[in-house]
Structure formats: C-alpha cells, structure tokens
TrEMBL record:
This is Alpha/beta fold hydrolase. The lineage of its organism: Bacteria, Bacillati, Actinomycetota, Actinomycetes, Kitasatosporales. Keywords: Hydrolase. Residues 24-292 form the AB hydrolase-1 domain. PANTHER family: AB HYDROLASE-1 DOMAIN-CONTAINING PROTEIN (PTHR10992:SF1086), METHYLESTERASE FAMILY MEMBER (PTHR10992). InterPro entries: AB_hydrolase_1, AB_hydrolase_fold, MES/HNL. One of its GO terms (molecular function) is hydrolase activity. Gene3D superfamilies: alpha/beta hydrolase (3.40.50.1820). It comes from Streptomyces hebeiensis.
Length: 299
C-alpha cells in the first residue's frame, strides 16, 4: 500500500479547492497601491486562489508627487495644486473595468474586492458591467447604494462622533483638488496619528516600512463624486461586507450604516456580513484571516 499520495493526486486535490477557477481582483484604498496587497495575495495563493492587484490612476509607482514633497521643509506642500485634481471617478472605474475584462477571459469566477475609498470606483465598474463580476467584497469600503457620495458617510454622525485622523489633512481640499496627507511628515506626533488611524496593530517601530509606501494625494473626485447605482445591475450581484470591528478610519457604526442602507436598497439581495477583529488594514496585519474571509463565500 502506498502511504504517500502521488504528484497527480496532489494536483487533483488542489484542483477541487473551492477557490479553483476563481480570481480575486484587489483594489486598494486612498493613498495606497497594488503592492499593499502582497501578503494577502500570498495567503490567497496558499488557499488555491489566483489574484491580481491593480493600481488606480494616480497611485503606485506612477503617483505624481507635489514638487516639494521630497525636499527639506517640504515647500508648498499645503498649497500646490495636485496633479490629480482633474482625475474623475469614471477614469478610476475604467481602470477597474480594464482589469475585469482581461481576467474574465481566463477565470470562471471573478470576485471584485474594494478597500475603503475604492468602493466608489469599484461599485461604478460593477454597475457599468455586472456581467464581468460574480461577487463584490467591500472591505470596510464605501458602498454608495444609500448615499451616493463617500463624503456623505464620512460626515455622518455615525462616523464623526468617534473618528480618528481628522487632523491628518494637509491644505484645503478644494484648492488642492485632492485629499492630501503627509506620510513623510517630520512630526512624530503626526506619523503616530497616521499609524493609530490606519495601522493601529503595527508597532510604532515597524510602521516606517508601511507609511513610507503611501502616496500623498487622493483625487477629491473619488470621495466627492456621486456614484449612482441601480437595483437591476449592481443590485443583482452577490456581495459581502467584511466588517472591521476596531476600525478607527471607518468606524463600525458607519460600516453598519452603509450595510443597512444597501440592504434597504436591495432587500431581496442583502449583504453577507463577515467580521474581522482589528483595524483598517488587515491586508497588512492579518492577511491569512483576510484571505480566509475572502474565500469563505466560495464554499
């Protein structure tokens, strides 16, 4: 009797994984980029799932920086208009759609995952071409079903009563055309507030490798442009909300508000809600748990 499985049987076992034939399209939030998903992608791969992480326009290696951002004293950081000021939500959604069109040719199941502010472009992409998506996952992400602008949730009492990070903005949003932060700030108190708001589970001594990878500008159009959804297009898609129980950037009460608003919008197709402990960035702090949550609805 052969006590050890043959290579062929190992391959067969892998192929019957619930994640086989599935690709996760991972879309980052404000000031982040595709590389922030790397740990989660490794965790997904161990579960048998393929994944692709994309950069929204103006993010990643191609993110334009204010001219004084890397200079001593950061001259003009609070006043220089952003190079992303004219970027639209439609352009961001088109970058998502481009990736969806590519992966749909090769995979049976496409799961679209939005983190945080990318919920707007992701939702618009799904509304535009629902046949390209089999499920949407909102990772503490904006859901525009009830209120079409992310800023409408960010200013709701459910968010403002206990939110952190209100002092992180640099300059005037309208003048800059962007929501600007300063990941390279020389002020240790500012950097600590950034950590506590978005990466609270990362020790202060290890935070540099994360905050130094952030870009300073989120185009103002992303949280401020209305995204209009319909029940017969976006609303027909299965969707999951991964609720983050200790999120200081998107408070649990605001997450619940978005979930409830969306369920009222499509009462016959409510969210599947899954919860993870911890803060706003589980892709950095608990990638294995996040990957498990992502594949759980494939079973």
């Amino acid at each position: 009797m052969n006590r050890f499985p043959s290579p062929r049987s190992k391959v067969k076992s892998a192929m019957i994984s619930p994640a086989a034939g599935t690709v996760f399209v991972l879309v980052h939030g404000a000031w982040h980029s595709s590389w922030h998903w790397a740990r989660t992608q490794r965790s997904l791969a161990r579960l048998g799932a393929a994944s692709v992480a994309l950069d929204l326009p103006g993010h990643g290696f191609d993110a334009p920086l204010p001219s004084g951002y890397l200079l001593p004293g950061q001259p003009g950081l609070a006043t220089e208009k952003s190079a992303l000021a004219g970027l639209t939500v439609d352009e961001c959604a088109e970058s998502v759609l481009s990736t969806l069109r590519e992966v749909r040719r090769h995979y049976r199941t496409v799961v679209l995952v939005a983190h945080s502010a990318s919920g707007g472009p992701v939702s618009l992409a799904a509304e535009t071409a629902p046949d390209l998506v089999d499920r949407i996952v909102y990772l503490s992400a904006f859901v525009p079903a009830g209120r079409p602008r992310f800023v409408d949730y960010l200013t709701a009492p459910e968010q403002t009563a206990t939110v952190r990070g209100g002092s992180l903005g640099v300059g005037d949003v309208e003048s800059l055309g962007a929501f600007r932060v300063n990941p390279l700030s020389p002020d240790p108190e500012y950097v600590e507030e950034l950590r506590r708001t978005y990466y609270q589970e990362i020790p202060a001594e290890g935070f540099a490798r994360w905050h130094l990878t952030l870009s300073p500008d989120l185009p103002s159009a992303v949280p401020m442009t209305p995204v209009r959804l319909t029940a017969d297009r976006w609303g027909r898609l299965p969707r999951t909300f991964v609720r983050l129980a200790d999120d200081w950037a998107a408070r649990p009460a605001m997450q619940d508000l978005m979930i409830n608003d969306a369920d009222a919008f499509t009462p016959d197709n409510p969210f599947t809600v899954r919860e993870l402990p911890g803060g706003h960035s589980p892709f950095a702090t608990r990638p294995d748990e996040l990957a498990t949550a992502l594949v759980s609805d494939l079973r």
